[in-house]
Amino acid sequence: MEILENVEYKTAAVLFGGIGGESAGLIKSQVEYGGKIYRFKLLCSIDSDPVACRNHDIITGEETAVEMDLFRRWQYEAWHGHEPPSEWQEVTPWDIWVAFKKQVPFFLFLSPPCKGLSGLLPQAKSDSDKYQAMNYLTVSGLEMSLQACEEYGGGVPAIIQLENVPRITSRGKPLLRQIKKLLKKFGYAVSIRPDHNLGEIGGLGQSRVRFLIMARHEAQIPNVIYYPEKKPLRSIGSVLAELPEPGDTVAGGPLHRLPRLQWKTWMRLAIIPAGGDWRDLNRVDWQKLRVVHEPRRGAYEVADWDKPSRAVTSTAGPGRSNGVAAVSDPRLQINGDGKTNLFRVQLVDDPATCITGAAGPNQGAGCISDPNLKDREGRHPGVYRIVRADEPAPCVTGTRFGSGAIAVADPRVNTKLHPDSYGVQDWNSTAKTVRSANRIMQAAGSVSDPRVPDRPGRYTDQFRMQSIDDPAATVTGSTDVQNGAQLIADPRIKSAPRADTMGVLAWEQPSKTVIGSADVHAAAVAVADPRIPADNEQGVWTIISLDGTRHRPLTTYELAMIQSFPQYLPDGRPFQLEGCSDAKAREYIGNAVPRDAAVEMGNVILLAGAQAEAGITFEMSWDPVWVAPVNEEQPTMVH
């Protein structure tokens, strides 16, 4: 540990200190002037909230928080709506003096509760006795501190600063008049402005406009107090990019949890454009929007034989894997020396090749170009029909897919397939490489085969269905329906679909027996899947918005970092607050003075103290002045 002999400490005390944003900034402030290093020594941080006091000491690493209720009796009764308990005692100037460690602090900072003065509170509530009692803390806290210092220490703080919301200039005009009168009475030069941007003062990733009073005791600080150098605001992304991924509570601590929002809230967030708000929802054509599933990278990926494999995951399998699951294997040597029957399609007019024991077309078992599927006007028009997603569906029938059951052109599938997926090769061109995963959805495994004859002279009674009321067609010697043996529409069979046809199973019940022809037209093979979230179901989901980004809420940890709290506590843990809910933690963080802004304001206060100590009452400088000396104009006689 390095001990410096030329360090001089200026004492500081904080009223309404909360969880310690101002305190942490003052501790970090430091200026060098006249061969000395000036720093702050924190005497105390007074607050009525025991949880805030506890976290103040955790964040600052010093035990300087003092739990003290600064309400006077009438304020307590107005705020709580009842008399205080018997053990409650009204604070006196002596209690303040003891909290100050019986010293007059060089610097006094106050950040009184601002809820009653904020524009977020309706005017009627702000005017109520309850909130007027809270608002009066801006006056009573300052008055009691000055009284304690003068009565027991024989002096007053050299510099006083008070922070609040800008709306205090309208909702708190009577209070500001009392504060200004009080400070003038004790000999302070006062600057009162509602346009201080703490984001520019501290170089934060947020614009935070606040009301500040800066009071300089002219007898102790006859020189000016300079305004901190304004810094450019950072983008919010530059702050968040340095943090762990949201939801990583190991690296970011318990406050880095993503809030569990309702599904409809996540949907609204995804629809609102970046930089917009809820009002943009009124301009959204929601009928054209649909949530689609986007597979992870790696689905259907074919690994290169000559390159290292991707990570092996527990979900290995094409289409559902986010790791390696397929490989382009060069060991299958298909060339002029290979078998001639691989993937061979035989003509219907030629003799078959030798029947082998192989069990698939890629091993020698033949395929045939079957001409029996005839195209004619009488065929059912709904066979293999594809319905557009933006048009009504035709009548739902009980037939299977190839006999009239419809298919839909579903725009929700957004998969980037490999080149040649579902590819159809030209009969007159050279075939593309035959791969080991030669399925139609993975390679150009189809061909436009011209050998299926379609001629007008083909026999017309194939697959013919006769009416029960008409004479039969000529009986031929053919023994199957596709060559002329007729079918008849027999009205005597009163048939109905089997039980469970198009049946939907309940999620909570056991499945029915799985049969060999299990599809939706023949058995109960559909299920009412409850995993699609209901509108009011709460959870954490990732939805990629129209702009290609993820619209999500900020975690409480990220809000603290935007307020420039330290990423790690003095004890090494990620920043966190103890003894409070996540909602209360957000309130504490939002009420705090940003630490980095407090550092810069503390630096100019230390500089003013150093210059006063050195006797510098005037100097030339380009720096803007915060609190300048008051010029007393002398009347003159003009003759």
Q: Supply the CATH superfamily name of the domain at 7-229 and 594-627.
A: Vaccinia Virus protein VP39
Task: Tell me the structural class.
Answer: alpha/beta
The termini sit apart by 71 Å
Provide the low-confidence segments as ranges.
none
Q: What would you report as the Rg, rounded to the nearest angstrom?
A: 41 Å
> What's the overall average pLDDT, rounded?
82
**Tally of contiguous helical segments:** 16
Report the sheet-strand fraction: 5-15%
**CATH fold group of the domain at 7-229 and 594-627:** Rossmann fold
Give the % helix: 10-25%
| Count of extended strands | 24
CATH C-level category of the domain at 7-229 and 594-627: Alpha Beta
- Which CATH-level-2 architecture of the domain at 7-229 and 594-627? 3-Layer(aba) Sandwich
Taking the sheet with the most strands, its summary is: 8 strands, mixed
Tell the overall outline: elongated
GO molecular function: methyltransferase activity
Protein name: DNA cytosine methyltransferase
Keywords: Methyltransferase, Restriction system, Transferase
Organism: Paenibacillus dokdonensis
How would you sum up this structure, described in words?
Keywords: Methyltransferase, Restriction system, Transferase. GO terms for molecular function: methyltransferase activity. It comes from Paenibacillus dokdonensis. This is DNA cytosine methyltransferase. Helices cover 22% and strands 14% of the residues. The chain has 639 residues and is an alpha/beta fold. Among the domains are: 7-229 and 594-627, Vaccinia Virus protein VP39 (Rossmann fold); 459-492, no CATH class. Strand 2 and strand 3 form a beta hairpin. The longest helix has 19 residues, at 595-613. 24% of the residues are buried. The mean pLDDT is 82.
